[in-house]
Amino acid sequence: MADSLSTGLGEEKEKEKEDRERDRDAAKNERNKEKDGVTETLGFSDRTSGGRDKKRSLSDLSLIRFITTELTRGYFLEHNEAKYTERRERVYTCLRIPKELEKLMIFGFFLCLDAFLYVFTLLPLRVILALIRLITLPCCGFGGSRLLQPAQVCDVLKGFIMVICYSMMSYVDYAMMYHLIRGQSVIKLYIIYNMLEVADRLFSSFGQDILDALYWTATEPKEKKRAHIGVIPHFFMAVLYVFLHAILIMVQATTLNVAFNSHNKSLLTIMMSNNFVEIKGSVFKKFEKNNLFQMSNSDIKERFTNYILLLIVCLRNMEQFSWNPDHFWVLCPDVFMVIASEVAVDIVKHAFITKFNDISADVYGEYRASLAFDLVSSRQKNAYTDYSDSVSRRMGFIPLPLALLLIRVVTSSVKIQGSLSLICVLLFYLGMITLKVLNSIVLLGTSCVFVKEANMEEKLFDPPPSAVSSRANSRAHRNKHVHISPQQEATSEIGGISVASDNSQTTNMAESAAPTLPKSDSDTFLTTPDEEDDDKIINTDTGLEGDGLKLRAPKKDLLEIDRFTICGNRID
């Protein structure tokens, strides 16, 4: 009985062992089949796996099977939806750039036109009124501590600068300059034109500082301690600058005139190709929103200056052909070609800069609102600068040299003889005044709309920034973001006073010295550095290196940046 039970149990164990081995073999065969299926998809056969002796048929290794697999192979774009959506948005942004950029360019063009027409229309009238006040005020008695208001002093200085520089420009022979430039080779003229463009930017940068220094020196309150060389030296510096800058622009216009009058148009083609070199120098650099704002302002100024240069070229050519209308239509294709190349280069440049730096096309609306804010703020009673000076600082466009050159060319090209000519000049002047007034009204209304859409009305009532408050605010901002490690705090104690306590005292002093200004949502709107700027930390010049005392880079407000605070083509 016992033997039969033991044999029964042994048979059951053997059956279970055989079942387990059978299941293991079945699973192994399934894995081998799956591996064979993968290798067949790739077009190869595994001849050594599983010890198989069966050979693959030649049809499995055929070219037809490989081609069939390539033709029927599929993939699914929705598996990477975010990537392809981003690519599509970039395409849409590039398509929106021309429209948004041209809106900004047109608005900026009329801003420059308004400042340019001011020199011809309202500035002479303001100078005459200031001189009448200066002459009649001693007869009527002094009504105040000043003979003239600060704005009137600046207007009189501008008028004297224009008169003196025009008398100096009358001794410059335009015809001799034209023939001197025309005798040069094409390559030499191309180099000269590039040098003139660089010199124009340098002159504009330093020239506005010279003019601002003159205005402030002439209107600075007398009770302050004298810290300048005097009004007369500053005045002669301003006269010299305006004269030299006008000569520089005259050489530019003469070079462009030579290019228009060349027989094979090779110089004009080379000068137009110079615009496309600008793409290479700008597109492949890192740009932030503030840098792009500076470059946009520079493009507006450059485009407006080119229009005035083309106007001067047309006037000189029409004079040489006795104002024949047929010759004007001969010049039109070249003029259109120059303008079209300038517009195309600007569109391509801005489209790829926004693409490579991941900047939205809506940023041009912010730039337009910032320019509109300058216009609206200059019309207030508490304005601290003239509008033309504000445009000069923002865009680097100084209208005095360009207006002086245009007056010189017009007076030499158009002969005024008889009373009928004088009546025509008077009507033309009245027409310019009408254009200036209408342009100012439309610009002011449009600017108010832009400022309202950007929610920037509250900033119009902020007081103008002073030197003391700005320094105190910047000092408070720097001390606000000081980070000191525990080790440095322990080792930097000198005389029982730690660096942390010193910084806290400095912060409290700065906050108490700085006036409290009203804040609004427009502060957040106008502060446009990239999001990565919040994580950037820079070292200070306190002598601590490595992990020493560090600061966060201060954010730049668009309203606090003029044309030459950050150069458009330089990344610090």
From TrEMBL:
<dbReference type="GO" id="GO:0010842">
    <property type="term" value="P:retina layer formation"/>
</dbReference>
<dbReference type="GO" id="GO:0048066">
    <property type="term" value="P:developmental pigmentation"/>
</dbReference>
<keyword id="KW-0812">Transmembrane</keyword>
<dbReference type="GO" id="GO:1904888">
    <property type="term" value="P:cranial skeletal system development"/>
</dbReference>
<dbReference type="GO" id="GO:0005789">
    <property type="term" value="C:endoplasmic reticulum membrane"/>
</dbReference>
<feature type="region of interest" description="Disordered">
    <location>
        <begin position="461"/>
        <end position="541"/>
    </location>
</feature>
<dbReference type="GO" id="GO:0001503">
    <property type="term" value="P:ossification"/>
</dbReference>
<dbReference type="GO" id="GO:0045724">
    <property type="term" value="P:positive regulation of cilium assembly"/>
</dbReference>
<keyword id="KW-0892">Osteogenesis</keyword>
<dbReference type="InterPro" id="IPR008010">
    <property type="entry name" value="Tatp1"/>
</dbReference>
<protein>
    <submittedName>
        <fullName>Transmembrane anterior posterior transformation protein 1 homolog</fullName>
    </submittedName>
</protein>
<comment type="similarity">
    <text>Belongs to the TAPT1 family.</text>
</comment>
<keyword id="KW-1133">Transmembrane helix</keyword>
<dbReference type="GO" id="GO:0002089">
    <property type="term" value="P:lens morphogenesis in camera-type eye"/>
</dbReference>
<feature type="compositionally biased region" description="Basic residues">
    <location>
        <begin position="474"/>
        <end position="483"/>
    </location>
</feature>
<dbReference type="GO" id="GO:0051216">
    <property type="term" value="P:cartilage development"/>
</dbReference>
<keyword id="KW-0891">Chondrogenesis</keyword>
<feature type="transmembrane region" description="Helical">
    <location>
        <begin position="104"/>
        <end position="121"/>
    </location>
</feature>
<dbReference type="GO" id="GO:0061036">
    <property type="term" value="P:positive regulation of cartilage development"/>
</dbReference>
<dbReference type="GO" id="GO:0014032">
    <property type="term" value="P:neural crest cell development"/>
</dbReference>
<dbReference type="GO" id="GO:1903012">
    <property type="term" value="P:positive regulation of bone development"/>
</dbReference>
<feature type="transmembrane region" description="Helical">
    <location>
        <begin position="160"/>
        <end position="181"/>
    </location>
</feature>
<feature type="region of interest" description="Disordered">
    <location>
        <begin position="1"/>
        <end position="55"/>
    </location>
</feature>
<feature type="compositionally biased region" description="Polar residues">
    <location>
        <begin position="500"/>
        <end position="510"/>
    </location>
</feature>
<keyword id="KW-0472">Membrane</keyword>
<dbReference type="GO" id="GO:0036064">
    <property type="term" value="C:ciliary basal body"/>
</dbReference>
<feature type="compositionally biased region" description="Basic and acidic residues">
    <location>
        <begin position="10"/>
        <end position="38"/>
    </location>
</feature>
<feature type="transmembrane region" description="Helical">
    <location>
        <begin position="235"/>
        <end position="260"/>
    </location>
</feature>
<dbReference type="Pfam" id="PF05346">
    <property type="entry name" value="DUF747"/>
</dbReference>
